[in-house]
Amino acid sequence: MKRVLFLLTFCAVFVLSANVEAIRNDPDLIIYYSFDKDEKEVTDDSGNGFDGEISGAEWSKEGKLGGAMEFDGGSAIKTQQDIPGLTDADLTEMTVEHWVMLSAITGDTQQVWEALNAAGAWPAETFIEGAGTMVFYIYDTKNTEHRTEIPELPTKKWVHIAGTYDGKVQKSYFNGKVVAEEAWSGKFRIFNAPTGAIALGKDNEADIQHLNGFIDEFAFYTRALSEDEINADMNKGVLFAVDPADKLSTTWANIKAEY
Description:
By secondary structure, this protein is of the alpha+beta class. Helices cover 19% and strands 34% of the residues. It has one domain (27-239): Jelly Rolls.
């Protein structure tokens, strides 16, 4: 009986290890900031090396999953200027997701993140309008804007926000559920910019629309995640809420101790 239990447990550990590796090797996960460490530069946990430069934002241990970054209405995080796979081609799909907690509704536009295009406009972004409505926005290569909204964003409460586009439909998610969608077909492009390909906590063209709140678990994919995938990221963290290597080593140690 013990031999059977051992084999079953070993298989479970093996499957967990394989799943972790599969998640880490997702070629469409371009950027992932877990914000789980207090560091001088935000580590890109996707493994791609696109770390973020911190400007005034403060680390907080009180994140939704581990740590988070706090933005005080004048701070920001920016990526590097060129991001292969993101700034070097037209995009036909994407997913952006993050936890956000607003400290206050200021009456001004508050930017969660924003990218730029060649004309200095914003090809993709998530922002909070003055009244507290959140907007997931894509400006396509035909100069047409597409907005899917999430109304009545709360303050001082963590909520999970995601936006997807699969080449046919753009969707906004609120706490894992689709709340708005728009059918359209086309492409968009995120260009490199001196202010970073993507800026978090502020607008990327005028530096006047700053977030007053917190961001956790920011991820950008170059494909549209399914609703199940978004819920898995929301509930478990993009690469799990704890270090998979530590989890595996602890599990294996426990098995050896038993046998």
